[in-house]
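User: For documentation purposes, I need each entry recorded in a consistent format: the amino acid sequence on its own, followed directly by the corresponding structure tokens. There are two entries in this batch. Please keep commentary to a minimum and don't merge the entries.

Assistant: Recorded as requested. Entry 1:
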Amino acid sequence: QVHLVESGGGLVQAGGSLRLSCAASGKILSITSWAWYRQAPGKQRDVVATITSGGSTIYTDSVKGRFTFSRDNAKNTMYLQMNSLKPEDTAVYYCTASWPLGTFWGQGTQVTVSS
């Protein structure tokens, strides 16, 4: 079992920045990949960025060059630095941790970008 807790969401004006954090606890050594997802109102939940088992970081096209996904292994925490935010980035953001038998999800944190 892995427990994930997000923080850092909030309200920001377009063009601003936020940093989301996700603290992980439990059987972290079993995790093979980490990711951030988001779900906008009335839309499906989509992946934003992934750190693969090979250590590569993959971003969805809409956030490339603006978002940075990183991990601090010593703190068992991962971050999503979001710069140049746009109103269309408004969503609930979730961190995830995956292992061969499934995926663990955090509770989500709201990000609202005003125009």
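Entry 2:
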Amino acid sequence: VQLQASGGGLVQAGGSLRLSCAASGPIYEINSMGWYRQAPGKKRESVADSGDTIEYAESVKGRFTISRDESKNVVYLEMNSLKPEDTADYFCYVKYRLYGIRRWFDGWGQGTLVTVSS
């Protein structure tokens, strides 16, 4: 299973970006898809998850919106009112099952860099 993320870039504070991530491969079922981010010198942190319930980090609530296109196995992250502290590598992930295998797997995409200038 592969994840391809896109949509990062450079934006001024207050601006918007939309990230997308497509999962491909022999996926039987997806439990959740979401986004983490990692800023320079900091630990990776969860940003948003679209499992049974949608969850957001406190720091992005009201500004970021996660959505999924289940027919295409794509997850989006709409980011508005961006702040310099949102600058980070953003990584998408998927929790999935393969055909004929009961256990769940975690897959990660490559990071897409978001830089917010002040």
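Summary note for entry 2:
The chain has a mean pLDDT of 96.
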